[in-house]
Structure to design on (507 residues):
């Protein structure tokens, strides 16, 4: 079938009856709504939104998008369609799109939105090369000659941006403690806590975690096989990178997987299944049972739901005047890459861990000025102390006042400093793989005793810190525990002062 181009006398082919994506998904381009699945993603474009004068662009727009359907990701197709609809809203062309309309559009874009012109350029160049109607051919020359700013990648990492860049050590530690405490109180689901830890431990993208299956984690060795993203292959699950998961997170994963298996999930099921992540389940299941991603969350849904679950429990930061700092998978990825670089890893290792094939993509993690980092640490370190909330437990009078009252496994003692009991564990240390008593002070299950020798624990921690003063990263390993012990000591002193005041008043 042929259609006549209204701008020229050229005849152009009509839409194909069916198009197949690179992974085999089928789409009927003539449909008013494109709704398809491609790997872990779900595509949805409603062309009925183009009403009135804009309806004339529907057919040529579809023609221009069809080539991208065949060889690009769903997100790229979405971005192209969104770029054009955004252009129509701002430029409102009366007839065929002309260079003047593009100039109007560019002038209305905010400085941070100028990258949109780059996205639009790719679509319109294809549109014109296909000879589709509605576009003045001179637009191709206009766009080619005009400088099209793209996203200024890397600035957030280079400048340690407090909103979009990597987390500082203090923010990292405070978030870890806050999330652990929230989970212990029952306010944060286990899947969210595990996903947060994996994001910080692996630096992956949401699409990688959305593609994870239960069998990708070896419960015996603790090794996680994370699918690689951004590879032009039929499926995201063709290449993997291995991560050795830390013991504490490993135990949480084992418990989480055991619970999934009890619900009927097997090794081929999603590690973060839709039925677990989404309370009410998906509105419509487009995949059949034989699809390898049946039951998997879409990356955007997994990411957005995760952020919603974690948001209420994010600590404050002095870098933003003591308000909660934004958290999202991209910031966790930046944090992972930054920490690797600061620990002395080579560009090759950082690129491998992050799934990059080009070393230039990781230059940003090595280009941040050490002075910038030093200034940030010096400025916010002391300010964070009052709000760090490193201690998450509950101060009690003595063993008789504790939850377990001295039951086996509940007593926390460090014979390196004293044979006196420092406090109790309200779960008797069940399933705990943390280093006692250092980790206890930042654990929500810890119940320190009022008159325990906490000062001796603090002295030992300070002494250990001095041993590694030549390496700031190693020296800072127990800084959160130091803050927690200091908070416990301050609370104990406050209680003693109150009692002295009450005793003096009663005389």
């Amino acid at each position: 079938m042929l259609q006549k181009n209204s701008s020229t006398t050229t005849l152009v082919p009509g839409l194909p009856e069916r198009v197949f994506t690179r992974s085999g998904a089928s789409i009927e381009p003539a449909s008013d709504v494109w709704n398809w699945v491609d790997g872990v993603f779900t595509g949805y474009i409603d062309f009925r939104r183009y009403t009135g004068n804009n309806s004339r662009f529907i057919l040529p727009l579809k023609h221009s998008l069809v080539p991208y359907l065949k060889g690009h990701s769903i997100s790229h197709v979405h971005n192209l369609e969104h770029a054009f609809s955004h252009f129509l809203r701002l430029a409102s062309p009366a007839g065929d799109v002309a260079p003047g309309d593009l100039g109007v559009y560019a002038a209305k874009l905010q400085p941070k939105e100028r990258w949109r012109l780059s996205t639009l350029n790719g679509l319109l160049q294809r549109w014109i090369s296909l000879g589709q109607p509605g576009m003045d051919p001179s637009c191709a020359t206009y766009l080619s000659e005009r400088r099209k700013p793209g996203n200024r990648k890397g600035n957030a990492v280079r400048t340690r941006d407090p909103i979009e860049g990597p987390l500082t050590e203090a923010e990292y530690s405070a978030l870890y403690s806050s999330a652990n405490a929230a989970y212990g109180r029952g306010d944060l689901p286990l899947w969210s806590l595990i996903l947060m830890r994996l994001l910080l431990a692996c630096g992956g993208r949401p699409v990688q975690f959305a593609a994870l299956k239960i069998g990708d984690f070896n419960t015996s060795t603790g090794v996680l096989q994370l699918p690689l993203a951004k590879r032009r292959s039929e499926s995201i699950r063709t290449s993997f990178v291995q991560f050795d998961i830390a013991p504490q997170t490993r135990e949480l994963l084992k418990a989480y997987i055991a619970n999934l298996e009890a619900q009927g999930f097997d090794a081929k099921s999603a590690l973060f299944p839709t039925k677990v992540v989404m309370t009410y389940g998906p509105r419509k299941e487009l995949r059949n049972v034989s699809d390898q991603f049946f039951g998997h969350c879409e990356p955007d849904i997994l990411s957005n739901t995760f952020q919603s679950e974690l948001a209420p429990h994010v600590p404050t930061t002095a870098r933003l005047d003591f308000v909660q700092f934004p958290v999202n998978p991209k910031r966790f990825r930046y944090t992972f890459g930054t920490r690797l670089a600061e620990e002395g890893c080579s560009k090759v290792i950082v690129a491998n861990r992050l799934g990059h094939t080009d070393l230039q993509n990781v230059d940003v993690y090595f280009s941040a000025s050490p002075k910038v980092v030093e200034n940030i640490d010096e400025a916010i370190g002391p300010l964070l102390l009052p709000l760090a909330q490193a201690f998450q437990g509950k101060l009690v009078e003595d063993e008789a006042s504790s939850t377990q009252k001295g039951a086996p496994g509940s007593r926390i003692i460090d014979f390196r400093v004293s044979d006196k009991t420092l406090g109790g564990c309200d779960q008797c240390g069940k399933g705990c793989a943390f280093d006692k008593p250092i980790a206890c002070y930042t654990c929500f299950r810890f119940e320190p005793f009022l008159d325990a020798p906490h000062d001796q624990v603090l002295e030992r921690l300070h002494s250990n810190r001095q041993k590694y003063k030549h390496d700031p990263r190693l020296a800072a390993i127990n800084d959160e525990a130091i803050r927690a012990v200091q908070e416990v000591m301050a609370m104990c002193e406050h209680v003693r002062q109150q009692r002295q005041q009450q005793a003096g008043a009663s005389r």
Observations:
- DSSP finds 18 helices and 13 strands in the chain.
- The chain has a mean pLDDT of 84.
- The longest helix spans residues 479-506.
